[in-house]
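Lab notebook, entry 626. We have the chain sequence and a SMILES string for flavin-adenine dinucleotide, and the next step in the workflow is to get a structural model of the bound complex before anyone spends time on docking refinements. Request logged below.

Task: model protein plus flavin-adenine dinucleotide, output structure tokens.
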Amino acid sequence: MPAARRTFPFVTPPEVETGRTAEVPITIVGAGPVGLSAALDLAARGQRVLLLDRDDVVSDGSRAICIAKRTLEISDRLGIGERLLEKGVKWNVGRVFFRDQEVYHFNLLPVDAQKFPAFVNIQQYYWEEYLIDRIADEPLIDLRWKNEVTGVEQDENGVTLSVETPAGGYRVRAEWVIAADGAHSPMRAMLGLDFQGRIFEDHFLIADVRFKHEHPDERWFWFDPPFNPGQSALMHKQPDDVWRLDFQLGWNIDREEAVKPENVTPLVRGMLGPDVEFEYEWISIYTFQCRRLERFLHDRVIFAGDAAHLVSPFGARGANSGVQDIDNLGWKLDLVMRGAAPRDLLESYDHERVQAADENILNSTRATDFITPKTPVSRAWRDAVLELARTHEAIRPFINSGRLSTPKIYEDSPIETPDAPGEFTPDMKPGSPALDAPVRLADGSDGWLLEQLGERFQALVFVSGTAMAEGMAKALAATGEEKAAIEPLFVLPAGISPSGLEAHAVVDRDGLVAERYQGRAGTVYLLRPDQHVAARMRHFEPAALRRARDRAMGRG
Amino acid sequence: MMNALRLEARLSDHDRLYDAFIRMHDGLSEAESQKASAKLVLLLANHIGEPEVILEAIERVRADMGDGSD
Ligand SMILES: Cc1cc2nc3c(=O)[nH]c(=O)nc-3n(C[C@H](O)[C@H](O)[C@H](O)COP(=O)(O)OP(=O)(O)OC[C@H]3O[C@@H](n4cnc5c(N)ncnc54)[C@H](O)[C@@H]3O)c2cc1C
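Result returned:
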């Protein structure tokens, strides 16, 4: 029944034969979307990485399908954004049904004038394949399949891992280890760490089915549908004419019975109608949990992705937030390893990503409580919302079929510089991820703002003309510091040509950069290497920028 | 400035309103009644339009209920 997924060859590691210990600066445990993205991020910064996975196949079965805009932007930086966009299904319309009637539909409207839409849908195995293809071109990454980590020990200077392979075992000595070994994280268990939170008893059945019947590319969600009374259901499009059908089953069920095609088919028929011809790609049952580690940082072992935090699938926050962990971690670890930033900078990873995990867990727990009411009162309120919303538009925002993943705006981060009072509105405040906008490049072609930002600190400077930019570029160059230089990106108003300007500049062709950033001549944003806002000011002042950069590097 | 929950008497026609509150439940089962009350709260909450005010009212009610054991 299931389509065959790509597998990867096991190669006997040289250390198995020599008996030597492999010495690498960074080892990543787990080659899911999070570990694979981490390897690419660090390699792009010049770090050598060993990536170990105990399996030899991309994610099988039914897992992530919705990739959010911020994750697409990060993936673009890692070199696979356009592939995801090309293959993925673009969708904007969501419909919500209660019993046998539509309550309402919403339109996510393509987020205007940005390179990536709010979401694309694509199977997790494609996503992983694209990352693995990129890694094949990256000499700094040593990716080893069928290499299982079975032991971990650490001291002040590094971490020693024991690795088992089909050809025998060996040891790895690393300065830093990223544990991206998934929900059941053996690394977590080996370090004896607590994983706290709520476990939900509800079972959900996923049938990924293939059919060619005309059906719009929309997300359909049912509360209490006739074909699955008292429960919920979801239908969502994936590439290759595959549809994700998700049915809530309830608490006390016989899992083995429930996945038998003779028990699944009536549900599928009920949802699709009696005439649609379909075939199964995969059937599985899942339950879920909302939990996290108390800390993501354990001396030299750093947790990311499902190994660090788990959420329910409603809202598509699992893999999306895991990749955002990596976006946050990569530049910090790189600067610490280069000796440019103190080790303390990594504490801000813990602060910021624990905060993000809490936001995701809160959202996902609330969605779960709406979708699966646990008491008569919560059911009464849920149904009251759904009934009233049919005729009262104002009540519709209460309907929660999963609040879809958005990036965390970090609050009170130890490495941000707060706004001076009254200078800006809260939009795009420090801690926010940079927003994309269309720009014209120096060579006259059209491009996107985010594509112009690199793996470094960047000052986004609004100027009135090229003379102003030139003066500022000189002043900034004088503040230069090799390991953490601030590179300016000048934003010129529409109509002004950047020709002759040596510094990196873009033209705000539609005025949308100025609008989104409240920019006017002299306004400066200091962007961190993960494109989050570190500081912003109304006057260009190199010393102030340098102070904000030092703060963003944990230099106090 | 955020508005606080107003606690001075502001309504007229209390008897008519009270009667309507009760009659809204005429002929409804216990479960339907609960749903009806929820709908009423939802509409009024939207009219008030200030989450902090509503949250304050919720806290007040919860405090007034004590530990729920009569
Ligand atoms: C039904 C369902 C729907 C979902 N939908 C979405 C969605 O739409 N959007 C979204 O963002 N997320 C979604 N998720 C969540 C998403 O699948 C996970 O969050 C994501 O896979 C986590 O990635 P990861 O790299 O942290 O872990 P994993 O993908 O689990 O990868 C962990 C890797 O570690 C390896 N490993 C484990 N132990 C060892 C060891 N000892 N040594 C070496 N290697 C080891 C494993 O082989 C595995 O390859 C969904 C999940 C489910 C179940």
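Notes for the group: The mean pLDDT of chain A is 94. Worth checking against the assay data. Residues 438-552 of chain A form a domain with the Glutaredoxin fold (CATH 3.40.30.10).
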